[in-house]
Amino acid sequence: MKTFVGPGLSVCCSLLSVCGIIFLVVLGFAFDAEVEVLTEFTSDPDDPKATAHACFTAAIVYACFLAFCSCQTLVHKYNARNQIQL
């Protein structure tokens, strides 16, 4: 099986993707609920619902990266297990 990234990079990317997904989903729900701290100033977004939608879309992109990097981690483990056989 072919790998595109190294084993350390795939694990790091997976962990960062999980953190990004959690952060973006929480931020999306906060904008969707129009939390006052995020929407009360003039520099804040005009349409909090559209901002929430953008956060959820970005979380989906991070989920795709998580799936790819998790598959790469599994491929590295599979290849390492097959190389040990005598």
Model description:
78% of the residues lie in helices and 0% in strands. By secondary structure, the protein is mostly helical. The longest helix has 37 residues, at 48-84. Helix 1 (7-32) runs antiparallel to helix 3 (48-84). The chain has helices at 7-32, 36-39, 48-84. It has one domain.
State the main characteristics.
0% strand; 3 helices; mainly alpha; single chain
Architecture blueprint of SSEs:
Blueprint: H1 7-32, H2 36-39, H3 48-84
Helix pairs in contact: 1-3
Uncertain runs are none
Net shape: rod-shaped
CA-CA gap between termini: 19 Å
Which sheet architecture does the biggest sheet show?
none
Radius of gyration: 19 Å
Kindly summarize this structure in a few lines:
The chain has 86 residues and is mainly alpha-helical.
